[in-house]
Amino acid sequence: MRKATALCALFWGAAVASFAQADHARPLGSSVIQIDFTPKVTRYDLTITDTLVSYTGKLRKAFAVNGQIPMPTLTFTEGDTALIVVHNAMAKEETSLHWHGLILPNQYDGVPYLTTAPIKAGETQVYKFPLVQSGTYWYHSHTDVQEQNGMHGALIIHKRNTGSSPEQAQTPEHVVILSEWTDMKPKEVHRRLHAANDWSAIKKQRIRPGTVQSYSDAIKDGALGIKLANEWKRMNAMDVSDVYYDRLLANGKPVDEAPQFNGGDRVRIRLINGGASSYFWITYAGGKMTVVASDGIDVEPVEVDRFIMGVAETYDIIVVLPADSTAFELLATSEDRVRSTSVWLGSGIKQLAMPLAPLKYFDGMRMMNGMMKMNGNLDDMGMNMSLQQMDMNVVMYPEITGGRKVKEVEGEREEMPGHDHMDMGDQYNSNALSNIVTLNYAMLRSPSSTALPRGPLKELRFELTGNMSRYLWTIDNKTVSETDRILIRKGENVRIILHNNSMMRHPMHLHGHFFRVVNGQGDHAPLKNVLDIMPMETDTIEFAATEDGDWFFHCHILYHMMSGMGRVFTYADSPPNPQLPDAKQAARKFNRDDRAWHFMAQNDFATNGNDGEAMLMSKRWNLQAEWRLGYMAEHGQEVEAHFGRFLGKMQWWFPYIGLDWRTRTEEHGMAEDNLFQQRSTKDRRSAICLGLEYTLPMLLILDTRIDTDGRLRAQLMREDIPLTPRLRLDIMGNSDLEYMGRLRYVLDKTWAIATHYDSDMGLGIGVTVRY
Amino acid sequence: MCEKAIEKAALVKGEAQADWNKDTKLAVVTYDSTRTSLDAVLERIAQAGYDNERYLAPDKVYAGLDGCCQYERTGKHEAAVEDSPQHDAHKEEHGHEPTEAVPSAGAMDPMTAVFEHYFALKNALVASNAPEAKEHAEGLDGAMHSVDVTKLPADQQAMWTEVMKATMPSLHPLSGSTDLEQQRTLFAKLAAPMAQLAKAVPQAAPIYLDHCPMYNGGADWLSQEKGIKNPYYGSMMLTCGSVQETIAK
Description:
The structure holds two protein chains of two kinds. Chain A has 13 helices and 43 strands. In chain A, the strands form seven sheets. Chain A has a twelve-stranded antiparallel beta barrel with strand order 32-33-34-35-36-37-38-39-40-41-42-43. A six-stranded mixed beta sheet of chain A has the order 10-9-12-17-14-15, with no helix packed on it. In chain A, strands 11, 13, 16, 18, 19 and 20 form a six-stranded mixed beta sheet that branches. In chain A, a hairpin with a 5-residue loop joins strand 18 (326-334) and strand 19 (340-345). Chain B is an alpha+beta fold. Helices cover 41% and strands 12% of the residues of chain B. Chain B has nine helices and six strands. Chain B has helices spanning 2-10, 38-47, 59-63, 85-88, 110-126, 130-145, 154-175, 180-188, 191-200, and strands at residues 16-21, 26-31, 55-56, 207-212, 219-223, 242-247. In chain B, the strands form two sheets. Chain B has a three-stranded antiparallel beta sheet with strand order 5-4-6. Chain B has a two-stranded antiparallel sheet with strand order 1-2. In chain B, a hairpin with a 4-residue loop joins strand 1 and strand 2 (26-31). In chain B, helix 5 runs antiparallel to helix 6 (130-145) and helix 7 runs antiparallel to helix 9. In chain B, 28% of the residues are buried. Chain A binds chain B through residues 262-264, 285, 287-288, 303, 320-326, 348-355, 422-423, 426, 429, 431-435, and chain B through 43, 46-47, 53-61, 75-81, 84-87, 141-142, 145-146, 168-169, 172.
């Protein structure tokens, strides 16, 4: 180990090194290869341009490398040196490329402002590093949300054929990179996620009825009680994934074909999930699949019927084509089961794989109701969940738990007295519930020992946290920019115990290292660089600190990462990074991502006036304004603005200071009292106020405030109650005896028609525009 | 009925429709080529269970078709591989020794298959043959999962659900285990639900509920023969135990 340490330092000095040395920097667990070959340098030139593409018939902007989407597959051989020349030919935008899963010197890791200089428009960057590993990897932009539209590609490093395993060399292979396409600009996707806008769900509803989980959907399924209990616990509709995609793609196409294979062939498929936020289920029409590698590193072969690929994970599988003159479908279905993409292996008549049936959302909702505590924490009921073995989502999978049959069974748990925790867990263990074998992390086993070298142990505990309603994703309720970097020392072993206390699964990725997933396989724990962790799971990962510099550890769901879900590991006493001479400025720019402000606004142009609101939000702060501008003097005009900070992990508390200005000509000539026996000034007011908003069960917002004249106001409001997928109800009432009710029918992401009744302005009908 | 299913699968109003002839087994597909393709229509028909010139239905969908709608799958090509693991399961290996007999899947009423596998598993444990026990545990697991609860008589459905619930926590690890001692521990837990099952469904021949007072404080098993052959200790105590009950119906 000491020798490796010294050699890494050498790479810092010069990017070129001899291969005998490079060999020692290889990841844990792989065997040492012989050095009886001539090393060579493999060069790729990549030119990044912006381009227009049409996946759905609409022209949209995207990024292409050498004119291709996805980016070209880079193929290398272990032991060689990669020389990659990246030219940014775009007019304005800066970019970056990160080599996902590769062990390389820190300055080539490609995280802009953290490890590597950004590639500004017109600039060229040269990456040169030795390839000390083999397997299935990929590369993508680490700048902003560029990865979503086009900037992802496969990176394959073949084993050097030493003649010892001719079988390896003979197995024909096919590389498949999975991705998604949305016609909406990724930046807008991100902005809308923060606005808790459920347009995505409405789009999905067209393909999969029930996705919105509106009241009418609930009634149809006989699950109104479940829906109400869900809102009582302050949960919005359950999302399996947040973004609506217009297409799912395999190698950039809705359908990929590999006709070169024949009946009887054993084929190695190198699968990469290059999606920005989608998990994919993989199933095969030709029988079982044998998983032989995960995240690039070999595992002992394990035969399965299906497996799920977390965002950014890679899996190598061996499949057999069981018949001649037939193309067999390898089916990749998004976790929400809204869309799928296929790879046809072989040629001839097409053998379809069994499609995945729609999710039983209300069964999932009932399960969540049982797990969610009133304070927003999740309760695993003593099941000690880990390693994907108990998948709470099985309650939504018809193939495992039977067809649609939502029934409201009260006290379900009490019906099973005497069952211990094992049995409790088995109701979520899909391998015990059915004869379909689903891969989980406990089934992965390294063929060689991955035991860590001796060294001091540093143990860290991370709680993954977040809330859906404001799309805030954090670790220990802190974002990247809100925390210091975590100092580690070369030579120590780092153990991280992760607990997911949020309602979504997170694919956590560590740059520049492989970690062992502690999974009951002892010294043969598998090595990975992405760990999918489901809600309520606790997983332990550990790695030997053998590098230098700064390494990002983050959720690989692009929009979670952009919201700040991550940490940076920094090696103590690292040499300065030549790429980033001004470390302070770089850190500031790196932290910029999760400090972004998001703007949203809506206005109702109605027959009786204009009525609207605008918000400028960051992850903790919010500046919001509301207005009601009547056309008639007696309807009055009013504007209220608040500025405040969200508090708590669930962000249910929002203290603020505000301005309230209004004027109205009272037709009755009579001032009114409010509920607190104070003279109401709602006809003429110009006041500064202090207030506190709190989200109550049923998602009601209680807004209490006092103004500079000492007047109190309490208000209850609930917006966007989903009566049907598209029909929404807003209600409001306050102690100034003002009240409002509004019905909106959502036409598309921008337009809605609305009718409202307002105690000041009366009845109005209009058109609502939403940004 | 089959005709309706095919035509319904093809139909998208204003886009495509099909007219299937029962005698010729040919469908005339009419579609608007500016909005869809023949390929898309044929894929939908195959997803509904009906093979055609371009697509083969998913096997599970075909298997789920009503018997009268099933047909000879001439589009399916011969298996090119001889020894792929999926095919071993279907090979019939009717040997001469009774313990070697592997019930062939599909040929038998699923409930009969459940008992066949259970007894074969028991015999393997009597013979202390761990690999064979694993094979039959897998067979039992498979047979139990292929019982369609909706096809059982109404009075057996609740019982079957209970039996499944009670067996799976032990049967699942059992079918993955090659360790004889572990297999026996888990096998002991199958006795109670299997006895419950044996009592509830009609039996062609009597079944004996046997008891061994020594194994883990007492354990049961089911057998087709009256003579005791103890599955928990192998040849050490082959005849230890006694018949507790005879189940016949």
